[in-house]
Write a structure and sequence with these properties.
Layout: E1 19-33, E2 39-54, E3 59-63, H1 70-78, E4 85-90, H2 99-103, E5 106-110, H3 122-132, H4 137-150, H5 166-178, E6 184-188, H6 196-213, E7 216-220, H7 224-230, E8 233-238, E9 241-246, H8 248-255, E10 258-265, E11 278-283, E12 286-292, H9 298-307, E13 310-316, H10 320-327, E14 331-332, E15 338-339
Parallel strand pairs: 3-7, 3-8, 5-6, 6-7
Antiparallel strand pairs: 1-2, 1-4, 8-9, 10-12, 10-13, 11-12, 14-15
Helix pairs in contact: 8-10
């Protein structure tokens, strides 16, 4: 399973790959009010010449700041949107031209939108999916039983979707996307707003799915832990362009990102000094230390525990947007626009 794709901006080296994008663009026309009766028209390049390939069975993280073009890419891969230019194929199919044919090969989960029927019990939503995809009865029963078991949905099948918590609904959506045995699963923020237990169940299920069925997974998320636990390869998109394609460790190295160690002491002390970390700031008995994301926190934790009156300690992972901003010399304002 490859751990890196083509160099950002270059055409895919393997046009026969399961997913292949070659110079794909998506341009939207936006009208902005500039006066009482005047509107200004301008073009927004949501995706600007992206090229990459994904082999069958890969689990790839597709990450970037809000407004970078992640969801637009996913919508083009599913056929919801038509590219403004370039070439795109999924399993040899042009999504925008053969959307119905492609539907049987893909599963999609949008974290902030549900594909389930709001007023129906979860079980009835699955029955409708059974009919829509014309899934053979034996296959449907087998897949449903497997999803119910692994995603812990047994007690929820007769509950109307509108009464489910966000975590329960998300697990229900993932099951619905997999009942027809898709070859590829697109996940757009699948763990957004979930509690720790729900996130763990979803991640474990996806690992098992990829290992046992060889399902290709393209995952967009702001949660680095999703990427670390599931994906061997990560792609970064920013301002509609592919900025990085490789291993997660390489991304941290390129962005020189740091973890933040939050140390709670029994009392206020002088700034903590231990090898491998630097002091950032103190708030009473709480101190903040920084260490490189590529380094293990264990030696630092051991050194702090041995020399200081430690009460509690936690590790904060680096923010994706901060990593990207540091990599490419820009920052983002509150509206998400780049400031260079």
């Amino acid at each position: 399973m490859p751990t890196s794709g083509p160099t950002p901006g270059e055409p895919p080296s393997d046009p026969g790959a399961f997913i292949a994008l070659d110079g794909v663009r998506k341009v939207f026309t936006v009208r902005k009010r500039t006066g009482l009766l005047r509107r200004e028209k301008r073009e927004v390049r949501a995706v600007d010449g992206i090229s990459f390939t994904v082999e069958k069975g890969e689990m790839v993280g597709y990450i970037g700041p809000n407004g970078a073009g992640k969801s637009t890419t996913i919508k083009m891969l599913t056929g919801i949107l038509t590219p403004s230019g370039g070439r795109l194929r999924v399993a040899g199919i042009d999504p925008s031209r053969e959307r119905t044919r492609l539907a049987g090969r893909i599963g999609v989960v949008f974290g902030q939108r549900t594909t389930l029927w709001w007023d129906l019990p979860l079980r009835d939503s699955y029955r409708l999916t059974h009919r829509m995809y014309r899934i053979p009865d034996d296959r449907f029963r087998e897949n449903l039983a497997r999803c119910v078991d692994l995603l812990d949905l047994g007690e929820l099948l007769d509950v109307p979707v509108r009464q489910l918590s966000l975590g329960q609904r998300m697990r229900g959506d993932i099951a619905a996307a997999l009942l027809h045995d898709p070859d590829v699963l697109y996940l757009d923020e699948p763990t957004i707003g979930l509690d720790v237990v729900s996130k763990a169940k979803v991640r474990e299920f996806l690992r098992e799915l990829n290992a046992s069925r060889g399902t290709t997974v393209l995952l967009t998320t702001h949660d680095l832990t999703d990427i670390e636990q599931l994906c061997s390869r990560v792609m970064v998109i920013d301002h509609g362009r592919l900025m990085y394609d490789g291993e997660l460790a390489g991304l941290h190295a390129a962005g020189e990102s740091e973890r933040l160690l939050v140390v709670d002491l029994a009392r206020e002390t002088a700034p903590i000094e231990v090898p491998g970390a630097r002091f950032v700031r103190a708030e009473g008995p709480r101190q903040f230390l920084a260490l490189p994301s590529s380094a293990s926190a264990a030696p630092v934790v051991a050194a702090v525990a041995a020399a200081y009156p430690l009460v509690d300690l936690s590790v904060r992972e680096p923010d994706i947007e901060a990593v990207i901003a540091k990599m490419y010399g820009g920052t983002r304002d509150a509206a998400g626009e780049s400031v260079r």
